[in-house]
Every structure is written in structure tokens, then in C-alpha cells.
Amino acid sequence: MGNKTSHDSDVSFIAALAELLRENDLTELQVKRDYGENDSLNVRVSRQTQTIVQASAPAAAAPAALAPAAPTAPAAPAADMSDPSNHPGAVTSPMVGTVYMAPEPGAAPFATVGATVKEGDTILIIEAMKTMNHIPAPRAGTIKRILVEDGGPVEFGAPLVIIE
């Protein structure tokens, strides 16, 4: 019966870990607690961020899709001038990290303003947790604006470039 009490507290401990994960925007947490001989708790709490990333790109177009198409389409370009993330051609960051515009220091940048890109072309790299993540162009077009600096930090969902 003594173990039941400690396992009830494990449930609130795991809930606290999940809250920590969310509050600190972490993707994974792992903890091991030893209670004594043959009695321990090994917990791994993680969350999938890639699925959220895929949903964020169409989210900018969602309000326009819900309204009748004709009146909404002319209004969209007016909104994009004040906030680049509202621009229909905005490519947003799928993660928090550091932006690199070229494959290595001193090399030519992946993309420049005015350059034509094909869908899938790497437009920049975001380094997150020592991993270099190549960010592909979601569609073909011309790079109209680059909204980030080489070596600068970027937040999740922040606009990176405008492709038209």
C-alpha cells in the first residue's frame, strides 16, 4: 500500500514536468527517480513540433479561405505592407534558431533579393541545437524581400523571406 501513495505523487510529478516542457518551449525532458531496490520511475516527456510547423504555413491563408474569395483577395496585399508575416508569399520559420544565408562563411548566399527559386530549393539554413536545418522554398517564385540577417536569431513562426 505504501507504493500506491508514491505512485500517486508520480502522476502530479509527471504533470509538473509536462508543464515545464510547455512553459520553457522544450521538446523533450527525461528524468529518472530511484525510490529504492526494484522501485524506480523513469519518465520521458516529449512533444512533436514538426506537425505544428506544417500547420503554421497555411494558417496565414486560413482567414482568407473562410471568407468569400473575391472581397478578401484585394484586401490581403494591403495588410502585407504593415506586417510581412501576413504577406501571402511569406515563408515563416519552422523553429527557433540562428539563420545562415550561405552554406558556409564566405560562400555565396543560397538566395538573394530578385533571385528565382524553384519549389524545394534551399533558401537558407536555421541552426537549432547544433543541427543545420535546410529551409526549402515552399513554392517557385522570385525572392522579393529577405527579412532576416545572416547569423541573427529567429523565432518560431517569424517571417524569413517573401517569395512571389
TrEMBL record:
Q: Which superkingdom is the protein from?
A: Bacteria
Q: Which residues form the Lipoyl-binding domain?
A: 88-164
Keywords tagged on the record: Biotin, Fatty acid biosynthesis, Fatty acid metabolism, Lipid biosynthesis, Lipid metabolism
InterPro entries to which the protein is assigned, alphabetical: AcCoA_biotinCC, Biotin_BS, Biotin_Carboxyl_Carrier/Decarb, Biotin_lipoyl, Single_hybrid_motif
> What is the annotated role of this protein in its UniProt record?
This protein is a component of the acetyl coenzyme A carboxylase complex; first, biotin carboxylase catalyzes the carboxylation of the carrier protein and then the transcarboxylase transfers the carboxyl group to form malonyl-CoA.
Q: What name has this protein been given in UniProt?
A: Biotin carboxyl carrier protein of acetyl-CoA carboxylase
What biological process terms from GO does the record include? fatty acid biosynthetic process
Q: In which pathway does it act?
A: Lipid metabolism; fatty acid biosynthesis
Q: Per its UniProt record, what Pfam families does this chain match?
A: Biotin_lipoyl
Record-level GO cellular component terms? acetyl-CoA carboxylase complex
Query: Which Gene Ontology molecular function entries are recorded, alphabetically?
Result: acetyl-CoA carboxylase activity
Which portions of the sequence form the region Disordered?
63-90
Which NCBIfam families does the record associate with it?
BCCP
> Which species expresses this protein natively?
Yoonia rosea
Give the Low complexity compositional bias ranges.
63-79
